[in-house]
Amino acid sequence: MTKDSRQSVLGSVSEPDEITSLDDIDWTFKGVNTQKYTHGLHKYPARMVPQIVDNLLSYYLDEGVIEEGDLIYDPFSGSGTTSVEARLHGLNAEANDINPFAVMLSEAKATPLERNDLSDSRDFILQNLSSDLRDVREEYESEGEVSSLELPEVRDGWFPQPQLYELSLLRNRIDEVEDEYGIEYARFWRIVLSHTTRKVSYQRNGEFKRYRLSEEDREEHNPDLESIFTKKLKENYNLMLEYSDVVDHSLETTIHYSDSRSATEDVGEDVADIVITSPPYGDHKTTVAYGQFSQDPALLTGKVTYDEMRNVDKNGLGGKNEIVEPLSDLEEYSPALKETLETLREKEGRSDDALNFFSDYYAVMEEVAKIAKPSQPVAWVVANRTMSRVNIPTHLITVELCEHLGYEFDVNLPREIPNKTMPLSNAPENVTGDTGELMSNENIVILRAPETN
């Protein structure tokens, strides 16, 4: 794909001739379409907007720092934003995530599908769907169950019935797609099932942690599963066609279901030409509960166990995993971290949680230093959260910890967050009505990978 055609396809915010440095770009991207192509397949919390990756890749391609066919790496795949943009820019991609649903979503979004098989597999799912769903509902109303359908491993009290049986019917039909058309097509349609699962469940709209509707609202909750599913199916079908028509199908995208703190075991060393990632802002339990968000959608696929999903938030950065770097040393690597921890200790705040998080984050930095080729760009998109009412200067800590590992600082690009799906306030001490500000700004911290691994 040439420079001019790439800009035409992506609809970049800035004209390419105007960009002489990364500082020339307006990184806020207010009002832009963040759902273009397969970026719009499914919601995901704290999703990195694709325009960040788009503009970084366009700039480095234009500057000759990377070229088409190179490899981009993302240690925190999430919803797959980096991998989708990689394909749109003619790049191969590898990524990690400890959330099996994120792995499935990233693969579904980044893998282009053939038009004929996509259409045929869609028709396969829809054939006699209305009558089969009607039979499920009638049997449930008559018998109080549907004996031919095995219910998924979801928690009791989170779904209306017979809708849960209807979801099981859809799951089985998509499993048949896998047998008939292949795993790529079944995976794509499971994303539609996931969307439907969240809409049908008692999950409160707009919440990413697991909060149920009130008992009164649950009594009134009787969603039309077929209309929800078929509407999203049509939307996602069209998004995939648009994406598949403009990308190179011969490129490779690999999403590892594994921990980025030991990523070299899967990815290898000295292989990535560029790294672009958006790490979690803190431990999953107190910031964004990716596992809670993904739990029911993942379980409805029938491919993931409840124990796997329950452990996602526990095993995230700052969770219960083994601490890789001695905590007493880490503080000395970053003056900003040391000052932050001292402030937290003075307030009797959550200094241990902060230190555990940055120890795990540092372990990822170590792995990325090995995976990236010497002196190639590494971009960390971070936000400065608060803990115990103390602002955590994550961008400064990121720079200092990376520099200790031999990275060379390049530039910091601050940006407001007009589009990101994140709460702007919370109750850090769990006092009702007592809220504190959360993230409304990000920093794109760009460094060069160490010259020697």
From TrEMBL:
Residues covered by the DNA methylase N-4/N-6 domain: 27-100
InterPro entries membership: DNA_methylase_N4/N6, MeTrfase_CN4_CS, SAM-dependent_MTases_sf
Superkingdom of origin: Archaea
Keyword field: DNA-binding, Methyltransferase, Plasmid, Restriction system, S-adenosyl-L-methionine, Transferase
Source organism (scientific name): Halorubrum lacusprofundi (strain ATCC 49239 / DSM 5036 / JCM 8891 / ACAM 34)
Pfam families (alphabetical): N6_N4_Mtase (PF01555)
Protein name: site-specific DNA-methyltransferase (cytosine-N(4)-specific)
Reaction(s) catalysed by this chain's protein: a 2'-deoxycytidine in DNA + S-adenosyl-L-methionine = an N(4)-methyl-2'-deoxycytidine in DNA + S-adenosyl-L-homocysteine + H(+)
UniProt-recorded Gene Ontology molecular function terms: DNA binding; site-specific DNA-methyltransferase (adenine-specific) activity; site-specific DNA-methyltransferase (cytosine-N4-specific) activity
Record-stated family: Belongs to the N(4)/N(6)-methyltransferase family. N(4) subfamily.
GO biological process: one example: DNA restriction-modification system
Signal peptide limits: none
Annotated EC: 2.1.1.113
Record carries keyword Transferase: yes
Keyword Transcription in annotation: no
